Amino acid sequence: MAYHNANNQNFSSQNLNSPYAAGDPYYNQSSGFITPPNGEKPKSKGVSKWIKIGVPVAILVIVGVVVGAVVGTKKSKDDAASSPTAQSAAAASVSSASVNSALQELATGKFAMATNSLYMMPLYPQVTDTSVFTTPTFASSAKASLTWPSDTFSAATPAATSVRSDRPRLIAPQYKWNVLADHITADPYLSYWNETIFGNATDWYNDDPVAYFFDGGNGILDIARRFKQRAKAFSYAYRMTNDTKWADRLWVEIQNVAGNYTTSFGPDYDRWDSNHFLDTAEFSAGYGIAYDWLYDVWTDDQKAAMRFTLIEYGLSFGLQAYNNASSFIGWWKTNTTGNWNCVCNGGLTLGSLAILGDDDTGSASQLLALTVPNALENCAAGPTDDGTWSETQDYWYFGTTGYAEMTSALITATGSDYGMLNDAYKLTGYSHMYGQGLTQLFAVGDTGPNKFSSTANGIFFFASEFNEPALALYQRDQADAADPWSMFWYDASVQGAFWDGMPLDRQFDNEIDQWVSMRSTWTDINGTYIGMKAGMNQGRQTHNDLDCGDFVIDAMGHRWAGELGDGDYNAPDYFSNDTQSSARWYYYRKMTEGQNTILVNKTNQNVLARPTILGYGSTNDTQGSSTLYEVSSGSTAYWYADITSAYFTDTSSAKRGVRFINNRTQMLVQDEITTTSPFEWRMHTNATVSVSSDGTKATLTINGDEMDVSILSPSSGAKFTTSAAVRFDTDPIPPEADQPNDGVTVLIIEMDAGTYNLQVLFSPQWQDGTSSVTPPSVDLDNWSLTSHNT
Q: What's the pTM value of the predicted model, to 2 decimals?
């Protein structure tokens, strides 16, 4: 079927006074906000309570303006976001040449039409002309001229302490700069990104330097990443224009974070906050980029000053972290496979490579002998063998950005990746793709602090290194693609549609992760998506929730079952540990009670859970080249797991499964449980909920669209009730009060002790007349691809 809901989204024209749009990883949209420097709480944006991702607004506006001229916009129930005034303001910043080029390209329907204003997801033209969508490939005959030239630098015996003689040496060698302008002219994506980078650079040029603000448990990480953003953007702008105003403005930032500008910047002895070493690493990376990319611009005195600051506040603390066994600041270097190891080693590596050869203290060479083998022992295992980032889907951004930066810099500067490009990083881009629902990420656990300089653009690097063109084709349409790294990691010779031949379903079966992604389409936000997980409740760097069995559902352009995201990172004991008695599990958003799963006896799940996947099946649909896609008759997918180990001795059996019904237009969540304690089926939604008089049906409504949720086993006495997303009065009191979850309702089925087969059917009320069906009752162990045909 073709999906038509009553709330077709229009492109975004968000606040043009900010370089970032609402609800993105650059400005965390869960209620666990980091307080901004002015002490004000982030303003409510009047949108979904769920976690969202997005990007600098300039790219959204550019695409929106172009599309408005070519194909117009879809009618929405909220048209205010696409006002003519906002479009005119945006259009003024776009050169006529790039717009004309984009118009010609977009008129063929090759690219995403726009970006959804609520969830920041790309919107694709719904067309059947498959001639414009081809099989993914690099260096096709039509675009062979846009391949990068070969690098003339090579190392007979590569070593991390032996670097190329020319500059820049980090990520973007001169041979790429030599052809970049031609590539920008020929490729509309590079043209969009270039415009956006300059737009952001211009905004920052007119801003004050980043202000020091210490944010408790997150230190000055936001400040470090904002500095790094500016270092990249100003360096890029100078090298593209040779206009020294950009170098002069960058010098102000460099002086500022060194404590040598007009205002103070942290304590003299530790300006870059080594106690929260992520901050130190990101400042070091920013300094390294600025030093290397503008090497020929800086005077000898400026370079000497930069080296002193980089070593004094960055590299020296890196050496302390590695060499002082009693120092806490280096905890991340041992048995830490998550983002901390990647970011810390990455930042120290970029800073060290930048000054290697000029550094007369030996700090850079000493560190390079340490960071590379340590990253291979730790960060290289950031993704599990199925590609999933074990911390959370959102921490994937931080880890893969740090790893891609480090690996790319080693390749360009020294001629080798030293084994860092393993198979898990080949797969991790696909994990990210499948973890992205039709409206937003399947974002279990913590979603992290503001991302700023951390994006998904490492996918471009991995796509090129592993010859995976579909990854590049996917990422180039995403809202965070406009970034200086993209200009050099993206291979503009790529051609085709990422969805052509891409399976709709995929399970990820590493024992830590255990999750499934199933959808009806890759290119229509109004389709259906299911994500469900089992997996372990430990081994995730204390970023997970107690959430075996958790699920999310998208349909008709909305997320109906969603995640609450972060708690307050500065709350006492939030990151204390992941043992059963940890106070982390007292916070509503982290405890089992705050998840979309089964809660037994109002008790948290067992942290020692070891679920097993019992079944997975798919009709193996692949979308093909057209964006307008209808699944074939009988198309389905299902997945179920034994999550008994997530509960205690009162529960002798607990299985949970999810599947598509009725050609992927309905979804079924099924639980088979035997327990001697009462339990609850719980689901969080930001829909308005109305429960029928007999309690067996709930109608969820978002912006006029409806989802009927029905209990298919009413004989058991199961009935829906609702509550606010707040803790039970009998729960342990957390060290600090929970953040409010305003606008979120919990849909609940309360059951007494016993044995049950509880089946809950989700039926979107499609606007094209598609009818719902009631499937037969089938035990999980008898599920098959045809078991629910009617």
A: 0.89
